Amino acid sequence: SLSSYFYTYSDNPKENGVYFYKLSVLDIFNKVVASEEIKMGISGVPEIKLNQNSPNPFNPTTIITYQVLIPTKVKLSVFSLTGQYVDELLDTYQSPGSYSIEFNASKYNELSSGIYFYKLETNYTSDIKKMIFTK
Fold it and tell me: What's this model's pTM, rounded to 2 decimal places?
C-alpha cells in the first residue's frame, strides 16, 4: 500500500559549509526499505561582524574594529573609491573575539582626501564599510 509520511528534523550548524543528511525508512524488522542522502549548503551562519571605523572622517589614522564569531581565516583590505587596491591590513586565522586594527593613511604618500572602503572577508562571507580620509 502507499502511505505518506512526514518528517521534520532541526539542526543548528555552527559554521558554514556543505552538510549531508541521510533519511532511511525501516520496516517492522528494522531492515532498510529505502534510503536517501540529502546534501545541503549552509551559508547563513554569521562568521564576522564589521563595525564602522572611528573616527570617521579621519586624519591621518582611524581604528577599524570587528568581531570574529567562529574560528576562521580573516582578511582585511582597503580600496579606493574607484576600486583600486590600497593595502592588505590583515590575512590570518583568528579565534572568536573582538579585534581592532589601525589604518594610518600617512604611510601611503599617494592617498588623497576622499572616500575609501575597507573589506573584511572569510571563506564564506564578507562585509564592506566606507571611510572618509581628510587632509
Answer: 0.69
